[in-house]
Amino acid sequence: MLHDYALAASVYPQRLFRDCGFVHVGSAVQDNARTVYVAVPKDGLATLQQIAQGAPHAIQEIQDGIQALDTIALAHAAPREPFESLGADGSLVEIVLHGQPDVDGAPAAAGAATIDSVTAVVSSSGGTIENEWIRRNDTATFVPARIDEGGLAEVLQHNSVRICQPMPRLRQIPAPIPSGQLPLTFTLSGRPPRSGVPPLKVAVFDGGVDADRDVWQGRVVGCEIGSPVPHGNSRAHGALVTSAMLYGHLTGQVLPPPANLDITHYAAIPQEGRQHDLQMYWLLDTMEKVIRSNDFDIVLVCIGPDLIVTDDHVDRWTSTIDQLSFEEDVLFVVAAGNNGELDATTRMNRVLVPADTVNGIAVGATDNPTGTTRASYSPTGPGRTSAQILPTGVAFGGAESEPFIAVDNDATPLLFQGTSCAAPLVVHGLANAATRLGLEYRTPTVLRCCAIHFADRARGQDPDHVGYGHLPSDYPEIDYTAAHVVHVLYEGQTTRDEVDVMAIPMPDGMAAPVNLRITVVSTSEVNPSDAGDYVGAGLNITLRPDTTVYTFTSPTDDKERKSLSLTRDMHKVVELEAVGWKRSAQPDTKSWTVQSKTEASRRAGGKWESVQVINHKLTTAMVGPRIELQHLSRQRAVLTRGTPPLKWTMLVTLECPPGTELYQSVRAQFPTLQPHVITIEPEAGTDIEATE
């Protein structure tokens, strides 16, 4: 374990570990303490002892590495709670193995000899390994096994075992709220025109849907995968998520025009036979295969393992969808779970896997369509490093007193409550955003940035409860804005070790105050075995609100400094420079509060967070404000070079007091910025009914 000050990558004892032959195979950060898992050669600890004894004469890098060490201990796994009583015939558990060095000394997944050793321990107590279901992810190896209580105790003593926990099972599928008080059916509003903008392509893996029913208006394709077992709750749940994506929360008997979506609904749950026993392994494998072989824009995940997020381990579900998001350029929208009423002191009310995604949107719920307060069943954060603010946001999920209303396959109402209502409602909103953005700008990163930037925030709400706020169901700000407000969208990719500079379009002479809101979103590859250093790339953000303001340092006392404007304080600048005062190389920066929960994130300035939100009020007239983005990358807790450029999206909102003609002033002074205009035309051959 490292001292709490040694959280930054720059303090990692890389040289010390290398000289001792230690190989980094994983990490975790918990309660501001960083645990690093290393594979140690036979003489590694003796080498460390020799180096420590000669520390006073060692180079500074070695001394710093020794000082960073707090404790050294043999790694042993601890059982996850709650561990139900294991049956005499053995219960299915998941054993996660540490990585180990390969023949070249590089970190790798556990080899055959290690797996055989663990298998021997399990077999000695009468247990068995499900060999065909062993999976590897980065340096971690996931081994399903059937063991009894005696076998569990033996497994936990094996040095290669990182975690042993009950085999993750499918979350409980919520049942509909009885709808006897709504004896009605929905009717279609007529054949709706399709937008000239191609629809978003969405995949959902759920309970299935009768895709050929008129109620879905040709927007849904149904597919069966595996051997799903027909089940009333699962079929109703499948209809719910489909309805919520297409129509949102229903408030009348006539269905509104469907959102601009093409939905492929894979009937996947529940599975029978062996797939049922290990269905979360099977389902994740199947989802990955389907997503890699198709071209989806969004994947909705309302089902998943009934597994609470922890700080010391990243589940394979989470790391797989994060890596898929990065590699396949797809946005995952994940329901956060319905365990918010469980015990908070033991953190049983924390978001469920894979809602700890860093590249997706995790959705909690409100019990009011326009409210910003967490519904009691909606789970809470925090997340972990790289995505501390969880859930990402909230949306209406219904309550028994005010249910979420959807339409079933037969056009009758479905009443539900849960984050399985809220997450597809967010997808419904993203479809509206995509239509407004047009084909050129509706990338997964842009959609994610819009959802966070335009979320409705209520003062005093705990980010652990509502994230960044109530996520929109529509986005009128994209193509309409008031005269005193300007929204500017930036997209780019930043090369490692280079700094991208973006001007903020502040018109000359614009009177203060001006409220500035900046949201930066990036999508990164991940390090699945490193819960403490999970994201592989990040952005160091610098805000320079006035590029005429510099810091001047006294020639006689470097602690005596003055911030002066080259224009407003021109005479004072000339006077000081004449007597030897030195001007800083760059304009002054302005700090802001990083909205994160852990010491690690705060010390890193938020640069490893996949979402960074800046709120700043410009209280004096500013000249040429700008934002600078610097790409940083890391692997195995060490800063790296030569990595691919990091893609990002940034949304900037400037807001002046009402009555200010900010929008027109920006257009006049910054002609390279073009208003976003999207013309929506019906497809050829579509009948449009004229209305007055």
UniProtKB/TrEMBL annotation:
Record domain Peptidase S8/S53: where: 201-469
UniProt-annotated stretches for the region Disordered: 364-384
InterPro entries: Peptidase_S8/S53_dom, Peptidase_S8/S53_dom_sf
GO molecular function: serine-type endopeptidase activity
Residue ranges, compositional bias (Polar residues): 367-384
GO biological process: proteolysis
Domain of life from the UniProt record: Bacteria
Pfam families assigned to the protein according to its UniProt record, in alphabetical order: Peptidase_S8
Descriptive protein name: Peptidase S8/S53 domain-containing protein
